[in-house]
C-alpha cells in the first residue's frame, strides 16, 4: 500500500497559531485479477412498485440478466423483489444454472408500494447465508421512489446500514430516474461501505451493474480505517471530507470501507498548529491506518505515519508557496459545502440565494484556476450546476447530480463519462 502525507505548507511561522491543511492519500497497488479469485456474494434487491412498470422494470431485470452472465460459476447470487412486501425470487446459491436464474429474473412484474426496508432486510438475510472471511458480500439496492412502507425514518435506516456493514454485508444504492430520495440513498451507501449511483435513464442500468461487479472483483483491502491523533504541536483538527467521523479526546477516526486495485482514498484535514518558542521541527501528530488485506491469504495490517512541520521565522515562512495538489483537494472539499448550502437555499425556494452561494464560491477560488486545471474544471462544473439548480424545470435532476458529485469528491470515487448501454467498457 502506498501512503503519502502532505502538508499544504511544510514551513510555518512560529510566532502565532495558524491553520494548515494536511492531506492523506492511500493508494492500493495495481494488481492483475487472479485466476483463482475468491467467489463474490451478490444480492440484487429490485423495487417492483407500480412506478417501475414498463421500460424501467424491463431494463432493470435485463441488467440483472447481464450481471448473471458475468458471474463465475462459484459466485453466489440471490435476487429479491419488493413492493408492499418482499419476495425471494432467487434464493442464495452458486450462479451455475444461468439460464434458470435469468428466467426467474424476467418473471418479476410491477406491484404496489415501496417497502424499501423490507426488501433490503430480506436481501441481507440471503447474503448472510454465505458470509466467509475475505469474501465480499454486498447488496445492490435499486429503487425509483421514496420509502413509504416499513421503516421509513432515514436515521434508523442509516444506523441499520452501519450495523449490517459491521456484520459483513455491504450496501450499494442505485437511484433510478428522478423521483428517488438521494438524501436517503447517498447516506445509506456511505454507511454501508458501498457505492451510490444515479441511474438517470433506464438504459444506463446494465452499465451500473457491470461497474458494481467489476468493483467487487477488484477489491484488495477491506475494513480500511484511518485514525489521526494530534500531537503536542496541534490544538484542533477538522476533517474536510463530508464523511461520518468519530471524535475522541485527541483524535478523529473514520471508516473508509474497501479499496480496489489501483484505487486511492484522499482525506483532507485542517489542523490548528500552536505557536512555538522558536525555529525547529514540530510534531502535529500521527496517522494510523488499519485494514484487512484480502488478496491471497487474509491478513490484518496496521501502519503509523508521522505528521510533522518546521517552525521558522514568519519572514521565511511567507516565502513558501502552498503545495498545489493539496490546495486542489481543499477546493474540491470546500465545493461540497457550497453545494450543500446551495441545495438548502433552493429547497426553500430561494433560487437567487442558491445562485449567490455558488457564485461567491466561484469568485473566491477563480484566481487559482490559472495555475490549476483541476480547479478550473471544478469551477466550470459548478457553473453548470448553478445554472441547472436555479432552473425549475431541471431542479430534481440537477439536485441529484450535485449530490452525486459531492459524494464522488468526499469518497474519492473516480469521475466516469456518461454510461452508454452499448459500450461494454463504460
Concise overview:
The protein is of the alpha/beta class and 426 residues long. The chain has helices at residues 55-70, 98-105, 116-128, 154-166, 182-191, 205-217, 314-317, 324-347, 351-365, 373-389, 395-411; strands at residues 2-7, 11-13, 18-27, 41-47, 76-82, 86-94, 137-143, 170-176, 193-199, 219-230, 234-239, 246-247, 251-260, 264-273, 280-293, 299-312. The strands form three sheets. A six-stranded mixed beta sheet has the order 2-16-15-10-13-12.
Summarize the structure in words.
By secondary structure, this protein is α/β, with parallel strands linked by helices. The protein has 3 domains: 2-29 and 220-317, Immunoglobulin-like; 41-217, 3-Layer(aba) Sandwich (Rossmann fold), CATH 3.40.50.410; 324-411, no CATH class. It has 11 helices and 16 strands. Helix 1 packs antiparallel against helix 2 (98-105). The protein is globular. The relative contact order is 0.14. Mean pLDDT is 92; it is low at 417-426.
Amino acid at each position: 500500500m502506498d501512503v503519502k502525507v502532505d502538508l499544504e505548507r511544510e514551513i510555518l511561522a512560529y510566532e502565532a497559531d495558524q491553520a494548515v491543511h494536511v492531506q492523506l492519500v492511500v493508494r492500493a497497488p495495481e494488481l492483475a485479477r487472479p485466476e483463482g479469485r475468491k467467489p463474490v456474494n451478490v444480492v440484487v434487491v429490485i423495487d417492483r412498485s407500480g412506478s417501475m412498470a414498463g421500460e424501467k422494470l424491463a431494463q432493470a431485470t435485463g441488467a440483472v440478466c447481464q450481471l448473471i452472465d458475468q458471474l463465475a460459476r462459484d459466485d453466489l447470487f440471490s435476487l429479491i423483489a419488493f413492493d408492499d412486501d418482499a419476495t425471494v425470487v432467487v434464493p442464495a446459491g452458486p450462479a451455475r444454472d444461468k439460464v434458470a436464474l435469468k428466467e426467474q429474473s424476467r418473471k418479476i412484474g410491477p406491484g404496489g408500494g415501496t417497502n424499501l426496508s423490507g426488501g433490503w432486510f430480506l436481501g441481507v438475510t440471503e447474503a448472510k447465508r454465505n458470509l466467509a472471511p475475505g469474501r465480499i458480500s454486498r447488496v445492490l439496492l435499486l429503487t425509483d421512489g421514496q420509502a413509504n412502507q416499513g421503516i421509513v425514518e432515514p436515521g434508523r435506516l442509516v444506523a441499520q446500514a452501519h450495523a449490517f456493514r459491521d456484520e459483513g454485508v455491504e450496501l450499494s444504492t442505485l437511484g433510478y430516474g428522478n423521483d428517488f430520495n438521494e438524501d436517503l440513498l447517498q447516506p445509506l451507501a456511505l454507511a454501508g461501505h458501498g457505492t451510490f449511483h444515479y441511474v438517470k435513464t433506464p438504459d444506463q442500468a446494465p452499465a451500473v451493474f457491470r461497474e458494481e461487479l467489476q468493483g467487487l472483483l477488484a477489491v484488495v483491502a477491506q475494513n480500511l480505517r484511518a485514525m489521526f491523533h494530534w500531537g503536542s504541536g496541534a490544538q484542533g483538527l477538522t476533517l474536510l471530507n463530508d464523511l461520518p467521523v468519530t471524535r475522541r479526546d485527541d483524535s478523529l477516526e473514520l471508516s473508509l470501507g474497501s479499496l480496489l486495485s489501483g484505487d486511492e482514498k484522499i482525506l483532507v484535514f485542517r489542523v490548528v498548529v500552536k505557536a512555538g518558542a522558536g525555529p525547529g521541527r514540530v510534531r502535529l501528530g500521527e496517522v494510523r491506518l488499519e485494514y484487512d488485506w484480502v488478496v491471497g491469504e487474509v491478513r490484518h495490517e496496521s501502519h503509523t505515519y508521522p505528521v510533522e512541520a518546521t517552525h521558522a521565522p514568519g519572514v521565511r515562512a511567507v516565502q513558501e508557496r502552498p503545495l498545489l495538489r493539496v490546495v486542489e483537494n481543499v477546493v474540491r472539499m470546500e465545493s461540497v459545502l457550497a453545494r450543500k448550502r446551495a441545495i438548502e437555499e433552493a429547497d426553500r425556494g430561494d433560487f437567487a440565494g442558491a445562485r449567490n452561494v455558488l457564485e461567491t464560491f466561484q469568485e473566491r477560488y477563480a484566481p487559482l484556476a490559472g495555475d490549476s486545471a483541476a480547479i478550473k474544471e471544478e469551477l466550470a462544473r459548478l457553473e453548470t450546476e448553478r445554472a441547472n439548480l436555479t432552473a425549475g424545470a431541471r431542479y430534481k435532476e440537477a439536485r441529484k447530480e450535485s449530490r452525486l458529485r459531492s459524494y464522488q469528491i468526499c469518497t474519492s470515487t473516480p469521475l466516469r463519462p456518461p454510461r452508454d448501454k452499448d459500450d461494454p467498457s463504460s
